[in-house]
Amino acid sequence: MKVVKTVPELNRLLAPLRADDKSIGLVPTMGSLHEGHLSLVAAARADNDIVVMSVFVNPTQFAPDEDFEAYPRDLEQDIQLAAEAGVDVIFAPLTDEVYPPGFSTFIEVAGAETAGLCAASRPGHFRGVTTVVAILLDLVRPTRAYFGQKDAQQLAVIRRMAIDLALPAEIVGCPIVRDPDGLALSSRNAYLSATERAAALVLYRSLQAAREAIESGQHSRDKIIALVERLIAAEPLAEVQYVEARDAAGLVAPPTLTGETLIAAAARFGTARLIDNIIVEIKET
Q: If one looks up domain 187-275 in CATH, what number appears?
């Protein structure tokens, strides 16, 4: 496995592979790798000749009061885990490699994909996400790029950007990976105390309750949201940030839920802001 830290190094490494018409799978990460990231690697490994992973904590997607400085970083461990998982190239640039001095160009998706959910409490977040992903897609020029369904809004935003800008890479969404008790894997789980981690299980339990209600015939968007909000709020250590029910593809918010529906929630547990979601298929009767 090769580890490169500059754009010229990356270009020199990938140019002959592109010339040989090798398919390239890109797995963008902010490091602090866990099994969720490694599941993206497995999908990329199965689909492509070459797997490139970026490890870059992107400053433009953090607000001034967020955890950019505290975000967990362990490049040596990430390199070891990536190598064991079958990554061929790690691109681990410094900030100036991604955002050269004088950088002043940003990409922003405006529409249902960036209305509400995480965008409501994280202004500018998705502008930072789309900008860095567009840069990585341009630098790597992958055949496919892999993103986790846990960040459902991010996945929808990136798909919209790729469609609108006619980007050639296929955007591949991969299933959420969970601990045996249901907690969705996240680098921010490292912030949780044992008590907070136990409390955080309310996220998945509340989403499962929403699934059961939908499957029992409750298709009112407002009532499903109210159910999940009530269940999360009953946990004393949880501070609800949002609960949403949207069309899974375009993230529009119909009053009556139909088709593939995303139920998503975010809450704080101590210093950790956690998100989770499920997709429920509502069949017409």
A: 3.30.1300.10
pLDDT digits (tens, 9 = 90+) for 173-188: 999 999 999 999 999 9
Query: Which residues lie below 8 Å from residue 48, measured CB to CB, with a gap of 6+?
Result: 22, 23, 24, 25, 142, 143, 144
Catalytic choice (34, 37, 125, 219): 37
Length of the chain: 285
CA dihedral 23, 29, 33, 37 (to 10 degrees): -50
CA atoms of 236 and 208, how far apart (whole Å): 19
Average pLDDT, the chain: 96
pTM above 0.90, yes or no: yes
Question: CATH fold of 2-174, please?
Answer: Rossmann fold (3.40.50)
37 is catalytic: yes
